[in-house]
Design brief:
The chain is built from 19 helices and 27 strands. By secondary structure, the protein is α+β, with helices and mostly antiparallel strands. Among the domains are: about 100 residues, Beta-Lactamase, CATH 3.30.450.20; about 130 residues, PHY domain (Beta-Lactamase, 2-Layer Sandwich); about 35 residues, no CATH class; about 120 residues, Beta-Lactamase (2-Layer Sandwich), CATH 3.30.450.20; about 90 residues. The strands form six sheets. The protein has a seven-stranded antiparallel β-sheet with strand order 1-11-3-2-6-5-4. Strands 9-8-7-15-14-10 form a six-stranded antiparallel β-sheet. The longest helix is centred in the middle third of the chain and has 47 residues. The protein is elongated and about 100 Å long.
Length: about 725
């Protein structure tokens, strides 16, 4: 008999302390609690508002050329402008984005760059590096923003990004790295030295970047490593005095890197690295990765420009993705119009789909299309046989999801379909009703692919007894893997487009079935069961305006005690909207169609905007049969419009806030840079269309505004930093 599982297996997985991870548990390594920094700078933790040093890197005194201990000293004891410059920024929110000050201490004849932020546990972290030489980067930023705005496709944008970062930073190799739905990454663009091996097209497994590191990438958008051979410098004391726990170094640029990551870079032949995050619609879309064969340090002003350009690139990605989606939306709209026209002229909306199915196949890069309904099955392209299609429909009926189903490994989902690989290795299914077996299906054939990985992703870890001896893959030579039994994966855009097409088809089916209900009374029970569960509010009435069907969605709009029997009984819902009431009454009396936007008071007490469609139904002999009333909830659409107005207002506010005094030398270019940033954002916002997934628009615009606000703040940091070189803090522009 097999022994029952031990209870210990059910306990929560414990995190792994920094520096003690191996490849089996690196996902849990607490890399933000490094307790050490890279030696090219120094770190101080001070109290507020006293600015007394309570924790410091072990090299801080030597870095500042001071004798004696630093702990317990106020920053003012170091002399120079350090204390005054830090104190001038204490009123600012310093918990999400560090700010920089240029300063001096009495013991050094060199200027310093100080980076300030507040960790979650209390106190203020001051990171110090030798200041960068004076350089005017604004003209480069201006040209870079123009180049980004001029990229009209993702490949062109990625190539532009790689080139800009290489020109700006001087690294040997710059790669643009995109994550797929499974977390794997692919190098989609590259700028490198001519003699280097190309990495373009290489894939890297999701395990190369643990989840804890991905979360840090979302919070701290830029990470720098000067030299893999640098010896980390510990903090003294090891625990932060405010919470007697390891210091949270999530936002520290000097933070020491994980030994696992250091070994990973060594295996690639990399000595120095820089990476910036590409955050698109609130998700980690990809990275810009910079590698160098020797030690390499990028100082603060260039790092700010890298961060700023990454935000601009992410905004441009939003615009490009939005444009692609808007094109798909336009195609879906035309499809809906053709189906309605086909109903009116040919009596069969299906012809709009299957007389010219190539559009639907091309839109999703599919090789086959099938429409499954109770009335029958229609197909186009390469699809399984009828029994197999019905079997797929039955399988879908028993899935937990009632929405879209997509897989590029159908045979793995259900081995029964293994024989369908030549034409149906991948499938995308959209339900058309709540009735069983009614779906719109797209198919993709098996594509035997040769994936090129940067090293064997299945290679076992190498190492010894000490976890620090365990290393990632020792070889990063191209390793190819042949993948069988799968189709090309469906993208997020594919899913959105399929959902839109499915909604358009379902709407037409709903209206046609409503008409058939009036024409063929003997089918009332069959069609009523289907229509009662439709998503949109729907009412069907006979020629006397007597309601013969009111579905669940419409019933949910009525007061609980109201049971209307005639169409006129619904008019109180339109109060106090006399024009809408008059339009509906006129349509009922004259038997003509009516369309109008109204506000309906729902049982919760709120009013919601709806588009109402009232259509008379007439037989082929011009006999009036009845009416179909359909409502579409416009709440999401109106919320999207409000969000769009608020977004535009916020961009105007950003522009006003960044106005600086004219007496500051070199400030004239900043309004031009800001104009380029805001113009890029406005273009992205215009491409975020009100699709059938309009409910997503406010969230997308919110994420877009967050990116713009961060870009603006980075630009402001750069302005403030450049202006502060030798200036009296009281003369500097106020920060917002």
């Amino acid at each position: 008999m097999t022994a029952p599982p031990r209870c210990e297996q059910l306990r929560p997985v414990e995190p792994t302390r920094f520096g003690e991870a191996d490849l089996s548990n690196c996902e849990r390594e607490q890399i933000h609690l490094a307790g050490a920094i890279q030696p090219h700078g120094a770190l101080l933790v001070v109290t507020e508002p006293e600015l007394v040093i309570v924790q410091a890197s072990a090299n801080a005194a030597a870095f500042l050329r001071l004798w004696g201990p630093l702990l317990g000293l106020p920053l003012s004891a170091l002399g120079g402008t350090l204390a005054s410059r830090v104190r001038s920024r204490l009123s600012e929110p310093l918990d999400t984005l560090p700010v920089a000050v240029r300063c001096e201490v009495a013991s050094l004849d060199l200027a310093l760059d100080g980076s300030l932020h507040r960790p979650p546990g209390g106190g203020l972290i001051v990171e110090l590096e030798v200041a960068a030489p004076s350089a005017d980067l604004r003209a480069f930023v201006q040209d870079a923003l123009k180049a980004i705005a001029g990229a009209f496709s993702l490949p062109a944008l990625a190539d532009t990004a790689a080139r800009l970062f290489k020109d700006l930073t001087g690294y040997d190799r710059v790669m643009v790295y995109q994550f797929d739905e499974e977390g794997h990454g692919t190098v989609i663009a590259e700028a490198r030295r001519p003699e280097q091996e190309p990495y373009l097209g290489n894939r890297y497994p999701a395990s190369d970047i643990p989840q804890i590191a991905r979360r840090l990438y979302e919070r701290n958008r830029l990470r720098l490593l000067r030299d893999v051979d640098d010896r980390p410098v510990p903090l003294e004391p090891p625990l932060a005095p405010f919470q007697q726990a390891p210091l949270d170094m999530s936002l520290c640029c000097l933070r020491a890197m994980s030994p696992i990551h250091i070994q990973y870079l060594r295996n690639m032949g990399v000595r120095a690295s820089l990476s910036t995050s590409l955050m698109v619609n609130g998700r980690l879309w990809g990275l810009v990765l910079c590698h160098h064969g020797g030690p390499h340090l990028v100082q603060y002003p260039i790092r700010v420009v890298c961060d700023l350009l990454a935000e601009a690139i992410a905004t441009r990605i939003t615009a490009i993705e939005g444009f692609c989606q808007s094109q798909a939306e336009l195609a879906v709209r035309h499809l809906g119009e053709r189906m309605i026209t086909a109903v009116a002229t040919q009596g069969a909306w299906e012809r709009a789909l299957f007389d010219h199915p190539e559009e639907l196949l091309k839109a999703l890069r599919a090789s086959g299309l099938a429409l499954l309904r109770q009335e029958g099955v229609l197909t186009a392209g390469e699809v399984p046989r009828l029994p197999e299609l019905r079997a797929i429909g039955a399988w879908l009926d028993h899935q937990a999801s009632t929405t879209l189903t997509a897989t590029h490994t159908l045979a793995r989902q259900n081995p029964r379909f293994t024989g369908l690989l030549p034409m149906a290795a991948g499938m995308l299914a959209v339900p058309l009703s709540f009735s069983p077996g009614e779906y719109l299906l797209w198919f993709r054939p098996e594509r035997i692919r040769t994936l090129t990985w940067g090293g064997n992703p299945h290679e076992a870890a190498k190492g010894g007894a000490d976890p620090r001896d365990i290393s990632p893959r020792l070889s990063f030579a191209r390793w190819q893997e042949v993948v069988k039994g799968t189709a090309d994966p469906w993208t997020h855009q594919d899913l959105t487009t399929a959902r839109q097409i499915g909604n358009a088809v379902a709407d037409v089916m709903q209206e046609v079935r409503s008409i058939r209900l009036l024409i063929t009374q003997h089918q009332v029970k069959e069609f009523s069961a289907r229509l009662a569960l439709t998503e949109h509010p729907l009412v069907v009435a006979d020629a006397t305006q007597r309601i013969i069907l009111l579905n669940r969605a419409f019933a949910g709009l009525l007061p609980r005690d109201q049971r209307p029997t005639r169409l006129a009984d619904l008019l109180p819902l339109l109060d106090p909207q006399p024009e809408a009431r008059a339009g509906v009454l006129g349509a009922l009396e004259d038997h003509h169609p009516w369309r109008g936007e109204v506000r309906l008071r729902v049982p919760s007490g709120e009013t919601r905007p709806f588009l109402l469609r009232l259509d008379p139904v007439v037989s082929g002999q011009d006999i009036h049969l009845g009416y179909v009333l359909i409502g579409n909830d416009l709440s999401d659409l109106r919320a999207a419009e409000v969000a769009r107005r608020q977004f535009q207002d916020s961009l105007s506010a950003e522009a006003r806030l960044l106005l600086v005094p004219a007496d500051l030398e070199g400030d004239r270019l900043f309004p031009e840079l800001l104009t380029g940033i805001l113009g890029n954002a406005q273009l992205a916002a215009r491409e975020v269309r009100n699709t059938l997934e309009v409910g997503q628009v406010p969230a997308i615009l919110c994420n877009l505004h967050a990116s713009v606000a961060r870009t603006t703040e980075l630009l402001e940091h750069l302005m403030w930093y450049e202006a502060s070189g030798g200036a009296d803090p009281s003369r500097l522009p106020p920060r917002h």
